[in-house]
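Suppose you are handed only two things: the residues of a chain and a line of SMILES describing S-adenosylmethionine. What would the bound structure be? This form records exactly that question and the answer produced for it, so the two can be stored side by side and reused later without any lookup.

QUESTION INPUTS
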Amino acid sequence: MVKPKLSTSNKNSEQDTNKQIRHTADVVAVIRYKEGEKESPLIYDPFARLFVSPQGEEMLKTALKSWPFFSDYLIVRAKFIDDHLRDFCKKEAVKQIVILGAGNDMRAARLNFLKGRKVFEVDFPDQITNKKQILKKELGTLPENVICVGANLKETSLSNTLSQAGFNREEKSAFILEGLIYYLTPEDVDHLFEELFNISPPGNFFLLDHISQDMSQKSPASEKSTKLPYPEDPIRYLNNKGFKIIESALLGNLTAIHFGKSYKERWWVIAFEK
Ligand SMILES: C[S@@+](CC[C@H](N)C(=O)[O-])C[C@H]1O[C@@H](n2cnc3c(N)ncnc32)[C@H](O)[C@@H]1O
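ANSWER OUTPUT
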């Protein structure tokens, strides 16, 4: 994707925004850590504690004031993704998993069925470096199946970046886009889904979440963006792009099932394939 050159001041403000966005990964880690402290957690991430920071805790407190359902939503979202990924890996010979906007995701190590499969983790270079440093310090090593890919998805061609990292587009793959696309511009989102379609053989599998435009109006400062989330209707969007929906759910309905609490704010999680 060719991008116009930014002036120095625009570049600095974009770097500040990217730094802020990067820290949203710490909030999600705090949420997973807190879930793991419960007597019967819905998902358990034993590594989440490594990424807990005062800043992440503070951001979560602020987020919960605007979105009291935030932690519940993110936990049922993670469960939906884990369950679908497990089913897909059971049914198909999946060799590669690509996690876009991976943040502090530790599925490569926490989900046993991913051992022996390549997991490409893509995020901003700073985020990747930070995560590697934490893991090396705390665990002495990275999960052996992980391939770290430092890239700004707004500036890179995903196909080139993944190929350079050793991704084989002939192999059946699963892609996870969890907590990502609402940080991208409409142009970036369009470009990303076109690339995902083009690099995928039929049968590739995808997991995505997306927030509604109405709920983004009430979003907490840590999640605030000047733009409305795009696309407005993700199901129609994916169909128009040529993908097939396998299952879509509203997180507010999943919290009713798993936590006995239902919320009306629309936030989708979607499993789909090419
Ligand atoms: C809300 S966090 C979600 C992290 C992780 N997927 C999870 O659910 O725990 C969003 C992640 O997307 C990454 N991200 C956002 N925009 C990105 C971009 N343009 N390029 C690469 N990574 C990006 C952030 O750095 C951050 O790690």
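WHAT STANDS OUT: Residues 21-22, 24-25, 28, 101-105, 123-124, 127, 152-154, 178-180, 183 surround S-adenosylmethionine (CB under 6 Å). The beta strands are 96-100, 118-123, 146-150, 173-177, 205-211, 244-250, 267-273.
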